[in-house]
C-alpha cells in the first residue's frame, strides 16, 4: 500500500511540473527549419535553402549548433526571406541524406531556387565565412540583395583621408589606417540581414547627428565583402556594433538601437575619462627569445612542428581571452624549456596577413585555439582549463606516451 502511495505521489508531482517543463522547452527556441523526406523537395522548390545535414551525437555538429541557430534567427524572417536556414537529422532521415551523398557530419549545402545541383560549403565554420558564402550564392547572377543601398557591392570609391562626423564606408584598404587612432563606433553588417536593414537609416542619422563632434567617427563595414577583417574582430552575428579606440576593440554595444540610445552611448564613451586600462596585448616577437615562446608564421610553421612536440597558440592581439592567456603561455614556455627534451611552445598571430591562410588550413575557428603537434601531426584541439598546472599536465603527456 505504501509503495502505491509513493508511485501516486511521484506521478502527481511530475504532472504538476509539466507546465514548467513545457515552458522551459519553449524558451529554448529552435529557429532552423526541420526538413524531412516528406517536406524537403517541396520546401527547396519554393525558396533558397541553406541546409545543415547533421547527427545529434556528432561533436562538430554540437559546436556548430548555436551558430546555426543564430544564423537562422537572422535569416528566417517572416516577410520574403532571401534564404531559409534549415537542418536535416541524418540519423532519422537516412535515405534523404544518402540521396544527397552526405558522407560526414556536419555537411552544409546551399540549394538555390530553380537549380537541380546544390553547392557544398567548404570554408571555416564561423559567421563571417558562412555569411560570405551565402552572399556569393545569392549574388551568383549579379543580383544585389535588397537592403542598405549599394552595401552588397564591393566598394571602388577612392580611399583617401576620411572626414570624421560623416558615415564612413570602411574597406580592406582603409580600415586599419582609419581605426588606428582615435575613437570609432563601427557597424559590422551583412546586406541581406533584416536587422541590419532596419538599423541602416538610424545609423545614417547617428552619423549626421554627430557631424560636429570631432572626437569620434561613425563607420560601417560589409562583412560579406571584407570577411577577414570581421573575422579578426570576432564578429559572430549581424549587426555587431563595436567601440574601437586606437585600433583596439574596447567593447561590444548591446543596448537598444534607437537614435537616442546610440547617441547616449557615444556621449558616455567620450565622457569617460577613468576608463579601465585594457589588458596588455601580446608581447612583440622581440621578447620571444627571452621567454622561449616561438613566434611562428606561414613561412616557418611546418618546419618548426615537423620534429618533436610543439604546442601552438593561435591568437588575435585584440582578443581578451588571448590577452589573459598570454602571461600563462610565457610561464608555460619557461617551464617546458627547463625540462629534458624540451617541448616547443609557440604562437601564431592569425590577424597577420601572412598567417591568414595558415590559420584557415589549421581549422582555427576562434581565439585562442590551442593545438599540440607531434612530429608534424596535429592532435585534437585542447579545450580544457587554461591554468598553468592543467596546461603543463596536458603537454607533459607527450613525454610519457607516444600519443596524446
Kindly summarize this structure in a few lines.
Helices cover 37% and strands 18% of the residues. By secondary structure, the protein is of the alpha/beta class.
The counted number of beta strands is 15
Over the alpha carbons, how many angstroms does the gyration radius reach?
25 Å
Average predicted confidence as pLDDT: 78
Task: Return the string of H and E elements.
Answer: HEHEHEHEEHEHEHEHEEHHEHEHEHEEHH
Shape: flat
Major sheet summary line: 5 strands, mixed
How much of the sequence lies in strands comes to: 15-25%
Helix content: 25-40%
Give the end-to-end Cα distance, rounded to a whole number of Å: 57 Å
User: Strand order of the main beta sheet, please?
Assistant: 1-3-2-4-5
Give the class from helix and strand content and strand pairing: alpha/beta
Q: What's the total helix number?
A: 15
Task: Catalogue the unreliable spans.
Answer: 1-27, 142-165, 272-290
Overview of the molecule:
- There is one protein chain.
- The strands form three sheets. The protein has a five-stranded mixed beta sheet with strand order 1-3-2-4-5, covered by helices on one side. A five-stranded mixed beta sheet has the order 6-8-7-9-10.
- The termini are far apart.
- It has 15 helices and 15 strands.
- The longest helix is centred in the N-terminal third of the chain and has 26 residues.
- Helix content is 37%, strand content 18%.
- The chain has 404 residues and is α/β, with parallel strands linked by helices.
- Belongs to the protein disulfide isomerase family.
- Keywords: Redox-active center, Repeat, Signal.
- Pfam families: Thioredoxin.
